[in-house]
């Protein structure tokens, strides 16, 4: 099982901060697509992605036991 964490606006849109993804092996792109389709997270492509607290760029492999966090850009004022 893969633990997915959503922050800020993404968590608000999905209605949850944590999702369990029942896969043994996948990629960050596959998870992004799943979240986009299932939770209608339109802006998830703009989020930073971290796997086990390490930021990743591009498509990365994810395996059971990993934690994937999606952190949207922050704007201040």
TrEMBL record:
The keyword Nucleotide-binding applies. The keyword Nucleotide-binding applies. Keywords: Nucleotide-binding. Transmembrane segments: none annotated. PANTHER family: MOLYBDOPTERIN SYNTHASE SULFUR CARRIER SUBUNIT. Belongs to the MoaD family. This is Molybdopterin synthase sulfur carrier subunit.
